[in-house]
Design goal:
By secondary structure, the chain is α+β, with helices and mostly antiparallel strands. It has three domains: 196 residues, 2-Layer Sandwich (BirA Bifunctional Protein, domain 2); 54 residues; 92 residues, Rossmann fold (3-Layer(aba) Sandwich). The protein is built from 14 helices and 24 strands. The strands form seven sheets. Strands 3-10-11-17-14-13-12 form a seven-stranded mixed β-sheet, with helices on both faces. Strands 21-20-22-23-24 form a five-stranded mixed β-sheet, with helices on both faces. A hairpin with a 5-residue loop joins strand 23 and strand 24. Helix 2 packs across helix 10. The longest helix is centred in the N-terminal third of the chain and has 20 residues. The chain binds zinc ion. The site of zinc ion has 8 residues, from loops.
Amino acid sequence: MYADRLDVITGLAKRRGFVFPASEIYPGARGAWDYGPLGVELKNNIKRQWWRTLVTGRDDVVGLDASVIAGPAMWEASGHTQHFAEPLTECQACQRCYAVAALTAQFTELHGRSPAPGLSDVNCPDCGTRGTFTDPRMFSALLSTSLGPNPPTPSYLRPEGTTGIICNFANVQQTARKKPPFGVAQIGQVFRNEIAPNNFLFRTREFEQADLVFFTQPDASAEWHQYWIDARMQWYVDLGINKDHLRLMEIAPAHSSERSINVEYHFDFVGAEWGGLEAISNRSDRDMQAHAKASGADLTHYDQEKSNRWLPHVVSASAGINRAVLCFLLDAYSEDMARNAKGGTDKRVVLKLDYRLAPIKVAVLPLSRNPELSPRARSLADALRGSWNVEFDDAGAIGRRYRRQDEIGTPYCVTLDFATPNDNAVTVRERDSMSQERVSVDQLEGYLNTRLRGA
Ligand SMILES: [Zn+2]
């Protein structure tokens, strides 16, 4: 629909203060991003909605915040030190490294067949040389570090969040006095040594993941898996993602008793039309077995009704928060034609973010900067700040100020004009319809409250 949606969003994100290239004044941080004043609000709002829906809005899920750094024993038991690796190859002409899977997929998409053995008919995407790839070697995506001086202890920065939850099963179950079916949720930073970070916020080495681990009775995991697939899909739709832009993809499971589904969004990237937002898996009791065996801890649940012990099965739902930021930005972006002050029309850029996600909920805009309006407007903005994130702006033409708020997704603009000192009323403008309504200052908070419920 738009020339290059990713370029448009990346440009808007930088221009308006959502997302900047990381440590931009220094070289060397390609593929990493810093969240600006509006980006951090958007990201926090997404996390808040996730937490409300999955944790505080439910009786059967509790929260956790496990450590980012963990010793090798946990990651050996979980299989990450062994399996969290993929084959890499290097172009001998330019020394660039590529994932074999990525090269193969690109070639297949282009030619409609698999490449020849040894990638001998594949051109290097960087320098164009044909078939000079080394034999593949395994490369671990685990980011390692070492702790303390004498001797340094090898450790890992967690590559995902569910393992930290699963290892806390007994602690949480006892202290929260829960029995399966119940869930434990967590949002936190995770790290992967990606070979090729790409597509803005889509693939980065450091990102936030929102994880739900739902512990079920052994015979109920399939049913709960389907429940969470439906619930998670609905969450994106409820928060404004066009459901035609979402799909569910069955992923080949690691074990035959298991089933894994990806929620995908139509990112429409060059070479990657659909991309994963969230993985929802029925993992049977494999993780619980592995950690019980490796640690020696008792992770069984004592079933009082049946007077026996069993290992809970695990259903997990892991969402990438940074991908969600990108998805919500892409889906909210729209352009329309709006009337301008001269009676003509101009192109208008609007971020049609759900009001719960919008970084700024209300902008307070005195029509002009003067001693009658400015102090009133400032004290009105201060009063509204008790409830919402409010921006005060009295610089420049009102039309330009509206356009700026539209472009950052602010649902309501409150304008004080020259009639305000007499009638004690303001004009409230709604972002998407641009409709305007005169509202008494005394009733303004109530008016906004009904329209910004739960924000
Ligand atoms: Zn090359």
